[in-house]
Amino acid sequence: MNILIFGPPGSGKSTHSRKIVERYQLEYISSGDIIRAEIQKGTALGKEMERYLAQGELIPDTVVNTLILSKLRRVRNNFIIDGYPRTAEQVLALETYLYDHGIRLDVAIDIFISKEESIERISGRRICSRCGAVYHVKYKPPKVSGKCDVCGGELIQRKDDKSEIVNRRYDIYIKNMEPIIKFYQKQGIYVQINGHGGIDEVWERIRPLLDYIHNREKKRKEHE
């Protein structure tokens, strides 16, 4: 089963990607994780990407395509790609790769939330500067304000989590995703999921769909 999952900032796509990976034993390819890992290395490329993110801008397609497709070459099949593609150029790069390697996508899941919800979820997020644990001032506050429950490290707000940056990121996301959504609608694999509500509530909107696809693919392979 091969899945694309996307959604506006704060939609919970990474949280649900990990639940999907655990339930269906898929390989997880996260554009955000790959980009953050490069930034943490402190390379010239990482510093360049960090500047784009701090301004709420998209990282150039050529850079993102190289990072994601190099990971996909090692995985090949049974994967979920989180947060990619984000532009028409990225769709073209991905679809060309999949076609050349005989790989078929089963579903493109769009977890949708409003701009107001996106800003509230992201701007309230706090990250431990020491261990990377994630908190939220409203939904998951630490026991001691400003301190990590795990290691006692200082909690910080990432530059790209500030409300004005999230507002810009949301607008860019919606604009860029319109042609991508239309493309996958024509492919017959696009499904929009209501992302409002708690994690378990949203998961129960996703799980039956993927159970159906998983069982369908299992039966198809049994008859090959």
**Strand line-up of the largest beta sheet:** 2-3-1-4-8
What is the CATH first-level class name of the largest domain? Alpha Beta
Average pLDDT, all residues: 92
**Which topology of the largest domain does CATH recognise?**
Rossmann fold
Taking the sheet with the most strands, its summary is:
5 strands, parallel
Distance between the termini: 16 Å
| Tally of helical segments | 8
Quickly give the CATH architecture of the largest domain: 3-Layer(aba) Sandwich
List keywords for this structure.
5-stranded parallel β-sheet, zinc ion binding, 2 domains, 224 residues, 54% helix, alpha/beta, globular, 3-stranded antiparallel β-sheet, Rossmann fold
What does this protein look like?
- Helix 2 crosses helix 3 (44-54), helix 4 runs parallel beside helix 5 (88-100) and helix 6 (115-123) crosses helix 7 (163-187).
- The protein is 54% helix and 14% strand.
- It has 224 residues and is of the alpha/beta class.
- The model has no long low-confidence stretch (mean pLDDT 92).
- The protein has a five-stranded parallel beta sheet with strand order 2-3-1-4-8, sandwiched between helices. Strands 6-5-7 form a three-stranded antiparallel beta sheet.
- Zn(2+) binds at residues 128, 131, 148, 151.
